[in-house]
Amino acid sequence: MNHPEHTHSEHGHHDVRKTVRESYAQIAEKGGNSGCCGPSTGGCGCGPAEDVAIPSAEQMSAFFGYSAEEMAAVPEGANLGLGCGNPQAIAEMQAGEVVVDLGAGAGFDAFLAAGKVGASGHVIGVDMTHEMLAKARSNAAKGGYKNVEFRLGEIEHLPIADETADVIISNCVVNLSPNKAQVLREAFRVLKPGGRIAISDVVATAAMPDDIKGDLALLSGCVTGASMVDDLQTWLEEAGFSRIFIDIKEESREGIADWAPGRGVENYVVSAIITAKKPGGCGCGTGCC
To answer: pLDDT tens, 140-186?
Structure first.
């Protein structure tokens, strides 16, 4: 199969990363939510902000599965409303575990994970945007988090040693990568034997028309980078994962429509939860619990 991941040039990869980095730097500095279509960013081809009521970060997070208690548990400014699900709900984190958060942003999921793994656990957030990293570290200081650190890096080349993590989480970030197969290979490398991934992301359910597919703003808005489910399944298998489960959330289309009002993007992408396991180890279900 000729995967689209394998046809991009490195120059193309650089352009994608530059677009995403600039968009999320702007969100970190000026606010906004829902990718490029936040109320403070504008100008992304997503429809005039004055004509559309843009949901708040809290409204978007609630729609995609976060509780009021979770949103209240993190420092102000950590939740930017950029997710498309709640990986906390599927990761089954335990006290003492090491968690890696791919594309940690301002730290929302990393801080929630820190509460679950406790003082004996550790959370590493990775983000390629300096402005987001600064915001996350500031939030960590405000919240007094001693078991969380944030590292600068691309999720295709994680600044983390082999077999470090018990669980890898991510929320609507893998779709932004120009080389998702490499992201999954890196996740596999960083996981301990028996470790697992718990990812919320968007997947494509239909071919996109040219006016959507060619819109770079909608790449940063978590739309045009979405991969077909069959491709994700193949990349996970090729990376070495087992127990792969990709669960489509059709009800998410209503919230996705708000990412680019009036563009109909909800007809082409949908939120999904993606779980898989790195073989080995002695986790429950292996017969040695």
So the answer is: 999 999 999 999 999 999 999 999 999 999 998 898 888 999 999 99
Q: What are the distances in angstroms from CA 28 to CA 23, 55, 82, 133, 161? A: 9, 17, 11, 9, 28
12 within domain boundaries: yes
> What is the extent of the structural domain holding 32?
4-277
C-alpha 111/C-alpha 104 separation (Å) is: 10
Q: Is 39 exposed, middle or buried (0-12, 13-18, 19+ CB in 10 A)?
A: middle
How many Å apart are CA 14 and CA 203, to the nearest integer?
22
Domain count, the chain: 1
Place of tokens 């550790």: 122
Q: CATH number, domain at 264?
A: 3.40.50.150
Which residue's structure tokens are 């940063």?
220
Task: Identify the residue whose tokens are 């979405």.
Answer: 226
Rounded to whole angstroms, the Cα distance separating 212 from 39 reads 20
